[in-house]
Specification:
Elements (H helix, E strand, L loop, with lengths): L2 E4 L5 H9 L7 H17 L1 H12 L10 E2 L1 H9 L3 H19 L6 E4 L5 E8 L2 E5 L8 H14 L3 E5 L9 H10 L3 E3 L3 H10 L9 E3 L4 H10 L4 E2 L7 E6 L5 H12 L6 E6 L2 H14 L6 H11 L1 E4 L3 H11 L3 E5 L4 H4 L7 E4 L5 H6 L25 E8 L2 H17 L3 H8 L5
Parallel strand pairs: 1-12, 5-6, 5-8, 6-7, 8-9, 10-11, 10-13, 11-12, 13-14
Antiparallel strand pairs: 2-7, 3-4, 4-15
Helix pairs in contact: 2-3, 2-8, 2-9, 4-7, 5-6, 5-7, 6-7, 8-9, 10-11, 10-12, 16-17
Length: about 425
Amino acid sequence: MIRRLSTSDAGFLTTLDALLHFDHSTDDAIEQTVAEILKRVRSEGDVAVLDYTRRFDKLDAGTMAELELPRSELRQALDRLPSAQRAALEAAAQRVTSYHERQKLESWSFTEADGTRLGQKITPLDRVGLYVPGGKAAYPSSVLMNALPATVAGVGEVIMVVPTPRGEKNALVLAAACLSGVDRVFTIGGAQAVAALAYGTQTMPQVDKIVGPGNAYVAAAKRRVFGTVGIDMVAGPSEVLIIADASANPDWVAIDLFAQAEHDELAQSILLSPDAEFIVRVAASIERLLPTMPRREVIAASLKGRGALIQVADLDEACMLANRIAPEHLELAIADPVPLVDKIRHAGAIFIGHYASESLGDYCAGPNHVLPTSRSARFSSPLGVYDFQKRSSLIEVSPAGAQTLGPIAATLAHGEGLTAHARAAELRIKP
């Protein structure tokens, strides 16, 4: 069901790289459809959005106003939740908020001896758009993880779009929007929703950044509108890498592998262990526990297609491979995990110890679950408050500072052949 590998195998690194490879490109038909949708929404606005919503979501509305949910409906969704669900949602929201409040950046400046002041001004984005999958899919955790950092950052307005095929709304998603401080909610989805957020329509204002997951059409649309607006990332399939030793519980490890694999057939679950006997025990747990999983067909396809149980020489080699893999989620299920943390350079989130299951991070631990995938943890970070703030440099030059900086700038500008640049600096130098 799941391949067994060893770092001592001939050509192991080549095999590993092939296992990790994921092609983010979409087929020509998707790209052509998305390009047409974006072009039409940009030129026709509300009319195009209403037409696509009618065609794709079977939701007939005469105006965009009919597709905007009133705040009272969000509040009703929250108030009508079963008490256990509401308590869990509120607890998760509180923990996510508390964690992200520590990420807020503050403006700063310093003054040099001659009176020149330099610094950085931090300001929140004016308006952001949040894409949330809808219909039968229920992802209230995605609402919390995308909206709350924006709220903590002080974003002026958060607009959420969520498709409601045939009018099917998800109460948990709407309740999460209410808890997260979302300002406006439109029941639209797909590439047309991305286009409406990116370009604005007669009803929907243009946003500055679009965040949130979606299908292949949504991902393609986000790629195409980047530059007109910012985006969080173009995410690939979910992935987990577990480093475990013999002290780990094989059933726990197997279930944690399942937790990623159940997302979809392209999700990736990999175990690294120096203990051959432990790998055998995990394989046995997989065989025994898989039939108990409601999504066993999806899990089996994921484990067979992109999963692996890999024997490594030791934990140092495991860390080396972890940095090569740069996983979205990394679990350190070993007896003494803390020393290994310093050896990990590339991972979206690091789960330390036997009790830190990745699923806790998905829902309620506090850190964001929007994480870099497909090895992009080598150069990018989890979504956070900093993604909803921007930085402006502050440069206030005193008369004395102009005498120091002017000659330096003028000399470099003349060297580049930019005479006006040099003259602008020289004019401020006292004779």
